[in-house]
Sequence to fold (685 residues):
Amino acid sequence: MIGVDVGGTFTDFSFFNIETGALRHYKRSSTPEDPSKAIMGGIQEILSEQSIDTGEITYLAHGTTVATNALIEKKGARMGLITTEGFKDLMEIGWQRRPSLYDLRRPKPEQLIPPGMNQEVKERILHDGSILTPLDEDSVRNAVRFLKEMGAETIAVCTLFSFINPVHEDRIKEIIEEEYPGVYVSASHDLVAEFREYSRMSTTILNAYLGPVMKEYVHNFENSVKEAGITVSPYVTQSNGSIISIKETVDCPIKTAVSGPSAGVIGAIYIGKQCNLDKIITFDMGGTSIDVSLIENGKAQLSNERTVEGYPARIPMIDIVTVGAGGGSIAQIDAGGALKVGPRSSGATPGPACYMRGGELPCATDANIILGKLNSKKILGGRMDVDIKLAEKAIRTHICEKSNLDLQRAAAGIVSVINSNMVRAVRVVSVERGYDPSEFILMAFGGAGPLHACEVARDMGIKQVLIPPSPGTLCSLGLLMADTKFDLSCSNLTTAELTSLPKVRKIFDNLLDDGNALLDKEHVAEDRRKYAYSVDCRYLHQNYEIPIQVTVPFDEAAMEDMIEQFNLEHEHAYGYCDRNMTIQMVNFRISAIGVMEKPDLVAVELEPDAQLPEPIEVRKVLFDREEQYIDTKVYQRGELKAGTTVEGPAILEQMDSTTVIPPNWNAYTDAHYNLIATYQGGGEE
Fold:
């Protein structure tokens, strides 16, 4: 079983041998121009080392950044839009609220539809699904012919109230196929069967914009897999943390927009269950960014709408806050003389200056090498050389010479700034949403997460940090732990009262049928299927909803429980509830889940008298809030036995990451080789 996570700097691999139970991890530099090169090259290298034939691969899943990069770089397909007469300017109008209330000069996101490529057609369906104005097919044919003549590679179709009655959208799709065979088409009711036309149209446009790009990637990747002799069909991670067959991503590429980080959250949930931890804040720091998420009761927080490159995407995603703060984040002195780090990153090419690949700008990795936290000669388990002199040159040239900072203070300042950026991200998912971070454990992973986690945790009042056995590859491990899942929804404004029960049961039955049809396409056996139900509720006349988990059969007891849970959640979110107020059910949701086979990672016996191995060196390290370098022992983490305690200050090196245990912290290796670091107090609070 192979899981592959494609990052901006490195591509990570997790290999699990079903027969022997052996788990291996591997990293190699990403190839942004064609991600499949790094994927296939890494697979072939590790299989060759293990003397395993490609025909023995039974499972292959990967998280892809193709959709994300296409949106960031605005390299999607040339597209057109067909919509109801009178609504062609909806994307330009958007919401009535601004992302930055007092910044009148902040530019709007770049329009994905070229000027003149949004076409109206005559039709109108009312809010109850009845047809006011029949579809004028001639206007549709004229619109399609115009878009074809203008070179549209993809067409988005979004008409008013199609989520209630999709008959006009279905007919428009048929006419497009007749007039422009082979063009990519994305219809709103196939993606978002919910109200709020701006969000629905935006999601449809994003999906259509990415469709041809993902289609080409899927074609190239499948050919690479077949040429390598791999016989299984690969899976791709969705943004909700599940996996689907790679062919399904062609229809819904927007569902892969944050697929890589979501796999890390799934891996964190798995590790948490091993350790009986159900309150976790994930801290996934790679070369380009830091991804932070909150896990409560062993479950990831889900968001049904998220802004992607300035546009709302109304699809279920794991609620992840991303900040441009990674090992490759570039430091600079701005026009006002302040030290800034990120969000711009050096990426895989050229990378930080110390990587010796032509990079000349100072990055967080360069600062950590100068501070002694990273090995100044080799990383990746000795497979990659680094040069501290290039790091020093970059910081002196771009930071010291443009400020009054010496080399030591400049490097320490870079790390301090990036830590502050990450503290803000942790606050967003915890404090700003009503959670006390001190009740959670911080789980650090990604190549750079364990470098900074203890210092960030202390600043947030978090007393414990958990670092998995292979933190730099937890996202690829999470791909081996994911299930298949399809999230389906339906808008239908219904009062939460007993007379509504037959209507609600019928809605859930219809959603269940659609979910089973999708699981059939994925060849999921009946005994490996399970389902989760929820309803978006609000008080009557409110404008936004709160999702509430419900049980089926949806009977009187289930209704009463839903009402009580809504009141409690409303009080948690807004500080009050009104049990006399009428509750309205807005969106009905079902998750159809196919439970996949997963690796069984067995615990080992703890060694009560386990001793520390001999340090590989003693290195001078400058820790956060310390004035002077401290002599610090450096250990190979792989030599630590289960039950070993490490007192800070200490550095633990391994192939995929480096863990920093600052002064006033100690760490303990548990039966699964997780490292659990605990703050002992003392020092400057």
Observations:
- The mean pLDDT is 90.
